Amino acid sequence: GDPTRLGSESPVIVHLFEWRWDDIATECETHLGPAGIDAVQVSPPNEHIALDGVDGAWWARYQPVSYALTSRSGDRAAFQQMIERCEAAGVGIVVDAVINHMAGIGEGVGIAGTPYTPFHYGDLYTRDEDFNHCGRHEDDQIRDYQDRHEVQHCHLLGLADLATGTESVRERIADYLQGLLEMGVAGFRIDAAKHMPAEDIGAILERLEGNPYVFQEVIDPGNEPIEAGEYLTNAAVTEFGYSHHLATAIQSGDLASLETLGQEKGWLKSDSALVFVDNHDKQRGHVGGGVLMHRDDHYRLALTFMLAWPYGTPKLMSSFTFDDGNQGPPSVAEEGWRTLPVHGEDGLGCLDQGEVDTRGWVCEHRWPLVTAMVDFRQAMGDAPVAHWQQAGASRIAFARGGRGFVALNLSDETWQAELVTGLPAGEYCNLLDDCVTRVSVDDDGWAEAEVARDSAVVLNAERPV
Ligand code: LM2
Ligand code: CA
After folding, report:
1. Phi first, then psi: what are they for 241, rounded to 5°?
2. C-beta atoms surrounding 369 within 10 Å
3. What is the CA(326)–ligand 1 centre distance, in A?
4. Domain carrying residue 83
5. Is there an atom of ligand 1 within 6 Å of 325 CB?
6. Is 407 in contact with 456 (CB distance < 8 Å)?
7. What pLDDT digit, counting tens, does each position of 396-407 carry?
8. How many structural domains compose the chain?
């Protein structure tokens, strides 16, 4: 779970949700590499259920049919090329590994033509013993999240639960992941990790050769028997508390409550935590909502805070617009739900900021604010928070060692204040408005700052006017 494996001291990951492999390759060269983004989380690359039966829903990708690398995002050759082009641009590929389960129990044919029936998937998993049959509720479905056995051994949402406790299943999963490592992927997101005993994940990861960055998706609401901390011996873990805490602070106008974000009791240590403002599930209310996303007020302020605050490895969401929570990416239904590209001749490009009613690619990762803050985060390295200041609940400021300074104003009026920046004397540019705002720091590190409403002033010691 060591984030520096992604190639920098404070790496930033972006999730290009449902993007095509050839688009990602181009994006690595044209935007991600130049912006200093370290890695891309890609949608599951393996064969999933057919799109027709589910009207092109995005969640088809979470119903594996085989480990063949054919998916809505492209084929194996395109996947390999993407890895190579991104690597050349300094960007690693983090694969979303759906290994807890296969498709929903039923029959059909996968997107690459692999047939399946209940508990039989092509020639990959062919025996009932390859699946857990938990013996609860007659239908073996998960209902009671207070019951550890049930959560880990029954079927999640009707999805055939793999017997990850058995040697043969572990071996098949490890072969899949090892194949990806050999193609050059940099890491894995372990999907539905809470639904597998930590020991099973550990046994699979132990078989891998290479040194991937791994984070496990464990939704720990703080009141269930399975806790995020159990998974730390394997690799990093998602800290869902972060998104909720940040959303609550911002929605209630209480930025001051962020002073100790990350130090809460029971939270993961910074290096072991994967954090985000929103993810693909939460932004559309799957597994509960309670987070901020691109259409929400103050989303930019949330991103600014996350990238300025030295806790966890941040993951940015790069979305497509939707008007119902099942809808897949921009696509052509008549052509087998072909995903419309971002780049190239029939490429849609990215929507303009605020254009939320058009179907298209949002590309939050390209927003100038995001680019500036990614640069800031990397320049700050491990510089600790210093000089915490607040004026009421909705206006805060803090320094990052002597390297940087941030002031955030969530109130309805401009915030004019004398603040300690911790920076050497000089005149600095606000990184968020192309130096339209300038701040003079005196010999004692103090500055008279003017922070517009619903925005921030961000200074980097290395970026004087
Ligand atoms: C995850 N992490 O633990 C993913 O982040 C999440 O997106 C996945 O659910 C889930 N776990 C399983 O990998 C999504 C989506 C579900 C969808 C499943 C499977 O949020 O709504 O379930 O993928 O495609 C769908 C239907 C559901 C049905 C199920 C099985 O929405 O009603 O359950 O398929 O047919 C009967
Ligand atoms: Ca399981």
Report:
1. -60, -30
2. 20
3. 10
4. 3-238+320-361
5. no
6. yes
7. 999 999 999 999
8. 2
